[in-house]
Every structure is written in structure tokens, then in C-alpha cells.
Specification:
single chain, three-stranded antiparallel beta sheet, 3 strands, 48% helix, 134 residues, mainly alpha, Arc Repressor Mutant, subunit A
């Protein structure tokens, strides 16, 4: 029986002093960190994540999750479409090697084309960001 390997997402210690993060409220910081570290994440930074799960795991009221995600979208940090999360600079912050490149390519191939097309409509730079993988 094959067991699933645990995923680890190292967080740079400069996270807390990043100029964007520094200005966020405590709830916003928690949600932003959650977007990088929750068990649904994958190496390509695009994954299915219902808002109610963010609320349950962070303890932040559902109504506030929606407000926070809308802020992140306005700030061009995420795209959230049909319960799919796209963390815009997720791949950029990965330490690239052949295994990571293969993982990103596989991750992109697993995303429903309808979702990917919606993301591309919102992020005009998507093809640039993922040009090494598509």
C-alpha cells in the first residue's frame, strides 16, 4: 500500500516584514499564510478550496473570509473562481528544479480547462508566469 507523502511548505522568515503583509490585519495575515500552507495546496499554486474550509480552519467568520479574498483579488494576489484558488506568485517563490517543474506541469494538467480559462481571463500575465510549464 502506497502512502501519501507529507507536503512541506517552508515559509520565508521575511514573510512577516514583507511590505504587503506588514500592512494586513491579523485575520488577513492568517488567511494569506493559510493559502500557502493548507493541505489542499499544490506545487502550481492553483487548487480547489471552498471558502467554508478557510473559515473552519482559520476560525475566521465566513462573511469575513469573503471580504478578505475580495481584498486579495483587488490587490492582484489571488484569483478565486468557482471555489478554485490561484495564488498568483506561488510558483515564482518556489525553488525550481526538475522535480518541481514536472510537478507544476502535472498540476496544471489536472486543473479543469474551464477553471484555467477563467483564471487566464483575469490574470493577463498567466502565460508568462507559467511559460516554462505549458
Amino acid at each position: 500500500m502506497k502512502t501519501k507523502m507529507a507536503k512541506y511548505r517552508p515559509i520565508n522568515t521575511k514573510f512577516w516584514t514583507d511590505s504587503y503583509i506588514f500592512k494586513l490585519s491579523s485575520d488577513e495575515k492568517l488567511v494569506y499564510n493559510f493559502l500557502f500552507t493548507n493541505e489542499k495546496t499544490n506545487i502550481c499554486g492553483i487548487y480547489e478550496l471552498p471558502q467554508h474550509m478557510i473559515s473552519i480552519f482559520t476560525g475566521i467568520r465566513f462573511e469575513n473570509i469573503n471580504i478578505i479574498l475580495e481584498k486579495f483579488e483587488r490587490d492582484s494576489k489571488i484569483v478565486y473562481v468557482a471555489e478554485w484558488m490561484y495564488v498568483i506568485n506561488f510558483v515564482k517563490n518556489q525553488m525550481m528544479n526538475d522535480k518541481v517543474r514536472i510537478g507544476v506541469k502535472r498540476g496544471l494538467e489536472a486543473i479543469p480547462s474551464k477553471i484555467l480559462n477563467e483564471i487566464k481571463k483575469v490574470d493577463a500575465h498567466f502565460n508568462e508566469r507559467y511559460s516554462n510549464f505549458i
